[in-house]
Automatic annotation (TrEMBL):
Name of the featured protein: Universal stress protein
Stored SUPFAM superfamilies: Adenine nucleotide alpha hydrolases-like
Organism for this UniProt entry: Adhaeribacter terreus
Signal peptide, first to last residue: none
Pfam families named in the record: Usp (PF00582)
Length: 291
């Protein structure tokens, strides 16, 4: 993990996310690319220089907590661009070889759509979204909510590489509905096969729960979770994760930063994921029509 892309709008709300990114970069021994996207369609050289000064001032001013002594910070490159953040992120990911995007949860506010967007169209690299007000603490427990029977091993290895760099433990969660109780042994066996192919310290949790996000919330209430991970194809679960009114007021999982990354899926991601199920059923009908 060499470069982190931090997205900021220079607001007071984004200060906390910036400081979180600095601490994460220090833990990973990574460099930071700090990006500001203006609302204008284009910037003159004068406007670009003015915004760049503001961005550098922001970076220097909030580099340290007010109550702590100055410490050596990771290198920070500042960039300013005009237009939609999605386009700027894609360009930066390609030209600056970004390994990880880090932004606040408000990044999703401008992306609310009736139909979930393909994840690679939105975010071309793994992304951590930081809940408002959450401060960085040493990441000791990475919690990956996935499907033991439908898990890309290379994606799991990538999570383990991140955990190794943070000196963290990885918990793999699989949630199953009541109707699949008779498959517990089979699912657990798949989880054990997955764990055997990984180099990091792992533990497996097989939990009866109809709803993936409810399960994550209940897990966070009872266990330590410093970073949740979802591997999806689209933005459906990503958007649901940060809805404060999802099911429970002040849900525990909404206080935990979320790492979301792309993974191909061959089955619905959870029993309650209407979008995944509708897409999966559509594919099945299409296959039957072909045959």
């Amino acid at each position: 993990m060499k470069k982190l892309l931090l997205l900021t709008d220079l607001s007071d709300q984004s200060v906390n996310t910036y400081r979180y990114g600095l601490q994460l970069a220090k833990a990973l021994k990574a460099e930071i690319v700090l990006l500001y996207c203006s609302s204008e369609k284009a910037l003159t050289m004068t406007e670009q220089f003015s915004y760049l000064q503001k961005l550098r001032s922001f970076a220097d001013r909030f580099a340290n907590e007010p109550t702590t002594k100055a410490a050596k910070q990771p290198p920070v490159e500042c960039f300013v661009t005009a237009g939609a953040p999605v386009n700027a992120i894609a360009n930066m990911a390609e030209t600056r070889q970004i390994d990880l995007l880090l932004t606040g949860e408000n990044f999703l506010e401008n992306l609310q759509t009736e139909t979930p967007l393909p994840l690679q169209q939105l975010i071309p690299c793994p992304a951590i979204l930081v809940p408002e007000g959450v401060q960085f603490k040493k990441i000791k427990e990475v919690v990956f909510a996935t499907d033991f029977t439908n898990q890309d091993v290379e994606v799991a290895k990538g999570i383990c590489n991140l955990a190794d760099a943070l000196k963290a433990h990885v918990s793999f969660l699989h949630f199953y509905p009541k109707k699949e109780r008779n498959r517990r042994a089979q699912i657990l066996h798949k989880g054990e096969e997955l764990a055997a192919q990984l180099s990091c310290q792992t533990s497996l949790h097989l939990i009866e729960e109809e709803d993936l996000l409810e399960g994550m919330n209940d897990f966070a209430e009872k266990h330590r979770a410093d970073l949740f991970v979802l591997a999806t194809q689209d933005t459906h679960l990503l958007q649901l994760y940060f809805q404060q009114t999802y099911h429970k007021t002040q849900a525990y999982h909404t206080r935990v930063p979320l790492l979301n990354l792309y993974q191909e899926r061959h089955a619905p991601c959870s029993a309650s994921c209407t979008f995944c199920h509708s897409e999966h059923e559509h594919e099945q009908h299409a296959e039957k029509a072909v045959h």
